[in-house]
Amino acid sequence: MGCAGSREKVDGTSKKIQKPKAWKHSEAITRAQLMQMREEFWDTAPHYGGRKEIWDALRAAAEADLNLAQAIVDSAGVIVQNPDLTICYDERGAKYELPKYVLSEPTNLIRDS
């Protein structure tokens, strides 16, 4: 029996998504640099394995608010290992690793003026 706030399915494949913990990039970066890093990741991610439709669902979830992100991963059949979406699996067992920079902003982000 879980706590009232638990979203764990009976088969244990779905965890409630949480906002990633604060993180700091190795050096201060601008929003434009962060967006370029994200685009490069999403452009190359499918080449590391897994299914394109799962990568697309993970991108949509990463760019959505928490409630919508939860609905996206649940409907795509994504198995969330880490609640911040950094490690997920599809129903076939393929692993999907997302870097924190695609999920949230660093604490040392330089604000564009």
**What fraction of the residues are assigned to beta strands by DSSP?**
5-15%
Would you tell me which CATH topology applies? Bacteriocin As-48, Chain A
Shape: globular
Largest sheet: 3 strands, antiparallel
| Average pLDDT over all residues | 87
Write down the secondary-structure element order. Answer: EHHHEEEE
Q: Order of strands across the biggest sheet?
A: 2-3-4
Helix content: 25-40%
Number of strands: 5
Going by CATH, the architecture would be: Up-down Bundle
Number of helices: 3
Structural class: alpha+beta
| Count of distinct structural domains | 1
Protein name: DC-UbP/UBTD2 N-terminal domain-containing protein
Domain DC-UbP/UBTD2 N-terminal: 14-112
Organism: Handroanthus impetiginosus
Pfam families: UBD
What report would you give on this structure?
- This protein has helices spanning 31-44, 52-62, 66-76, and strands spanning 29-30, 79-80, 87-89, 95-97, 109-110.
- The protein is an alpha+beta fold and 113 residues long.
- It has a single domain, classed as Bacteriocin As-48, Chain A.
- The chain has a 3-stranded antiparallel sheet with strand order 2-3-4, with no helix packed on it.
- Helix 2 runs antiparallel to helix 3 (66-76).
- The longest helix has 14 residues, at 31-44.
- The chain is globular.
